[in-house]
Q: What sequence folds into this?
């Protein structure tokens, strides 16, 4: 018997303005529990804005954001982190002058279960051996790939049910990108639901269950990832 998918995230008619500019307009999107869903599109299409609205870093002009059945459209950022949404931002944004260890502990700032936090730290070091080797090193001295690993590990330290990944391969060498996506697959296998924004559309769709195509702030296509990989319009626009 096939079980019905259970939505963990629903966007209904989300519109966001930056100043007088409409960044996204009337976005509808669903992420089901246990999925990897990817959002692809050109630079400036509104992908990062969509994630920032979900994280409550920007306020929608209209529409609703429903997470785990709860309306979080006007919730505070720290509240949504506590409820289980974490974001690894574009550009990594690690605390450059703080150690790797301090960056990871900051990821657990909404938690008070110290013994569990220490256990999770060891899990992150097992998942990211390079971070373990550099645990006392300033984050700003890490390579770009290591900083991306740190940004993802820091987000995971909040124990998210939904992980938002914004351009995890941006600016990284091909071998490091392969490593980052291997880590993403491991996180998914461990039960984390993922909404992925990624410039490498082919790689994103190859690692996703479903995808949405965002163009000029509006969703123009959506469907199973393998279907989008075979769609001639998607191929011509994004897959080269």
A:
């Amino acid at each position: 018997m096939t079980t019905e998918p259970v939505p963990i995230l629903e966007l209904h008619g989300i519109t966001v303005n930056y100043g007088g500019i409409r960044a996204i307009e009337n976005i509808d999107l669903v992420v089901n529990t246990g999925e990897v869903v990817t959002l692809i599109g050109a630079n400036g299409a509104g992908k990062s804005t969509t994630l920032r609205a979900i994280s409550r870093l920007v306020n929608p002009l209209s529409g609703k954001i429903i997470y785990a059945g709860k309306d979080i459209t006007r919730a505070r950022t720290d509240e949504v982190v506590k409820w289980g949404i974490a974001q690894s931002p574009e550009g990594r944004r690690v605390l450059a002058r703080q150690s790797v260890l301090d960056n990871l502990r900051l990821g657990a700032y909404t938690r008070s279960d110290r013994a569990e936090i220490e256990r999770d730290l060891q899990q992150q070091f097992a998942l990211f051996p390079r971070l373990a080797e550099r645990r006392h090193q300033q984050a700003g001295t890490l390579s770009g790939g290591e900083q991306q690993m740190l940004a993802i590990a820091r987000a995971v330290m909040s124990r998210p049910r939904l992980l938002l990944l914004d351009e995890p391969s941006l600016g990284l060498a091909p071998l490091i990108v392969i490593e980052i996506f291997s880590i993403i697959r491991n996180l998914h296998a461990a039960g984390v639901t993922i909404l992925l924004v990624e410039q490498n559309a082919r790689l994103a769709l190859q690692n996703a269950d479903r995808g949405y195509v965002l163009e000029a702030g509006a969703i123009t296509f959506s469907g199973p990832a393998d279907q989008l990989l075979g769609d001639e319009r998607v191929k011509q626009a994004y897959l080269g």
Residues 38 and 211 are 5 Å apart (CA to CA).
